[in-house]
Amino acid sequence: MDTNTTPQPMPAPASIPYPQTGTAARPQLSERVNFIVFGASGDLTHRKLIPALYNLTCAGMLPTDFRVIGFAFTPMDDAAFREEMRKALQECQEATKYDPKVWEAFERNMSYITADFLAPDGYEKLKEKLKELGSTEEQPGNRLFYLATSPSFYADIVDRLGAHGLVTPSAKQGENWTRIIIEKPFGHDLDSAQQLNIAVHKVFSEEQVYRIDHYLGKETVQNIMAFRFANSIIDPIWNRRYVDHVQITAAETLGVEHRGKYYEEAGCLRDMFQNHLLQLMSIIAMDPPVRYGGTSARDRKADVLKSIVPINPEALAETAVRGQYGPGVVDGENVPGYREEEGVNPNSNTETYVALKLFVDNWRWADVPFYLRSGKRLPHKVTEIVIQFKRVPHLFFHLTPEDQMEPNLLVIRIQPDEGISLRFGAKVPGPEVHIRQVQMNFSYADAFKVVPSTAYETLLLDAMEGDPSLFNRADAVELAWTAIAPLLDIWKATKPFQPFPNYGSGTWGPSAADALLARDGRSWHNNIAMPVATIKPEVAPCVAGEPVGVRRAASDGETDGNKPGI
Ligand code: BG6
Q1: What per-residue confidence (pLDDT) applies to 478?
Q2: Pairwise CA distance, residues 518 & 385, whole Å
Q3: Crossing angle (nearest 10°) for helices 154-163 and 190-203
């Protein structure tokens, strides 16, 4: 076992995907941090945490003296843990190019404790380990716990940490600190979330608790605030006077993969809506905060959650749709239905798709529908927010069937092809006046020459620096559960109206989800072209319908008679 406590200098990395842009670079923390991961042999540690820590190492932003202590039930020694993490890192698409020298220096500071989360001996071993790493009563060292286990262990682990004296009190300036990051789902429903908050607060004070929702760490999600509040032209139109409705989509091509057991308990409403989708909605709908950090922005987001009009159980058909995928074809491959997945009940009524219509009852948004949807095994992996503006009040153009008079759309692409686009009508070049829809695109990759990092780097650093702005507060988590509670109850007690499975893999979900919008005279925006990384930011001839570029194609043998609108 490696008991060396001297900071190990990190060699220069091979390449840096976690970008440090000019003066925006965050300074490296100079204090020692002990990062203790519960559930270290699990999926999250392999796929997200270790790659994010490695990316931070390569970017020179991990504290100079950073220790990882894995804690899990799977028997492993330090060497086996390091080896497993190295393999995971090398397989990870989101990680900086593997550099053996950087990794060797990083892994020297990794150790592993094989232990049961409920038994006392693991916590005693952890105390010993921290002592070996220089922890004393006067200088306990900074401790960042990460709960990446099954959520059913959260309350017990927190309780054991307290009972074994592993949690120091809330720190004052200059003192060593203890903090805890808790993965989602935080609770299974409102009642269990409240119980978990009570259990956590018995051991940690609220400012030591970092409830993670990785969507909040995504660059593009943080950019919503910048877009809305760092530009004076946006806020005047960001309200019920100009906005017709908002669509928020989080579509995935993947099925439940090997998470069938978890997903059977969770379902899409818990897995995606209680956290990610309601967070996106809060940031889109919030009023301007007084300042970025502190409580201000979190208060404004909580205001949105408080203002969501409660779901009316009597009018559920006009509010919510649930679905479950059957077999189908995704990305050219035949895939099984949800009920055939490993760990799933062959008669399961767990939903893998949800569409919801919500209203925010306040001055800014009264009567503006927010349509939210998320599903697995849809045709594309895409998370985006579409703001559809109202139609112009008066039209004086002589419109023909070829003209395209559509409402303006502002599309905020969270992932992939991260960026923002605005669709608007433009005059087709030529002697007559005809209108086509064109799109003005901003692409992160082109503008900043970087692909936005995964969210975990930002969130891990924030927790180490003691900045909770991008984490969920106890009240916000409970408010989000409150918003979906009526649906959870009714769906638990009733069978789906349309028997499951009710949509094929590779389609955009159940037909009832289309009907949800059609009833309001609207439709989902499924295929808005976005810039790809190689296209320069410009007004591109991306159109809904026939391309504007047809006129240019005349030189390729087209006759004038084929030109649109002429
Ligand atoms: C997780 C859900 O929180 O988010 C998963 O548990 C889902 O089911 C994932 O696949 C989606 O995250 P992202 O960042 O890929 O959109």
Answers
A1: 98
A2: 19
A3: 10
User: β-strand 435-443 against 503-505: which pairing, if any?
Assistant: unpaired
Q: Residue holding tokens 């220089």? A: 134
Distance (Å, whole) CA 119 – CA 224: 44
Q: Does ligand 1 come within 6 angstroms of the Cβ of 383?
A: yes
Query: Is the CB–ligand 1 distance for residue 252 below 6 Å?
Result: yes
Segment (H or E) for 70: strand 66-72
63 within 8 A of 33, measured Cβ to Cβ: yes
Query: At how many degrees (to 10) do helices 50-58 and 455-465 cross?
Result: 80
Residue 183 Cβ contacting ligand 1 at under 6 Å: no
Q: Are strands 503-505 and 178-182 parallel, antiparallel or unpaired?
A: unpaired
Q: Which atom of ligand 1 is nearest to the CA of 276?
A: 3
- According to the model, what pLDDT value does residue 293 have? 77
Nearest-CA residue for ligand 1 atom 2 is 271
Using 50 as the pLDDT threshold, list the residues of the chain that sit under it: 1-16, 20-24, 531-566
Calculate the CA 339 to chain-centre distance. Answer: 26
Written as six digits, the tokens of 211 are 């409830």
Domains of the chain: 13-211 (3.40.50.720), 216-450+471-534 (3.30.360.10)
Q: Is 107 in the pocket of ligand 1 (CB under 6 A)?
A: no
β-partners of residue 370 are 246, 358
Catalytic annotation, pick one of 46, 188, 214, 276: 276
Question: Exposed (0-12), middle (13-18) or buried (19+): which is 489, by Cβ within 10 Å?
Answer: middle
Q: Is 204 helix (H, G, I), strand (E, B) or coil?
A: coil
For residue 462 and ligand 1, the question of a CB distance below 6 A is answered with no
Ligand 1 atom at shortest distance from the alpha carbon of 415: 16
What DSSP state is assigned to residue 10? P
Joined tokens for residue 393:
């009040």
Residue 276 is a catalytic residue:
yes
Strand intervals (E) in 128-242: 142-147, 178-182, 209-211
CA 100 – CA 195 distance, rounded (Å) = 45
Residue 68, φ and ψ in degrees, nearest 5 = -110, 125
pLDDT in tens, 209-250: 999 999 999 999 999 999 999 999 999 999 999 999 999 999
| Cβ neighbours, 10 Å, residue 251 | 20
What is the pTM (predicted TM-score) of this model? 0.88
Q: 331 near 253, Cβ under 8 Å?
A: yes
Question: Atom 4 in ligand 1: which residue has the minimum CA distance?
Answer: 272
Cβ atoms of residues 257 and 43 within 8 Å: no
Tell me the DSSP string of 381-426: -EEEEEEEEPPPS---S---TT------EEEEEEESS-EEEEEEEE
- Please report where in the chains the tokens 């404004």 appear, as a residue: 300
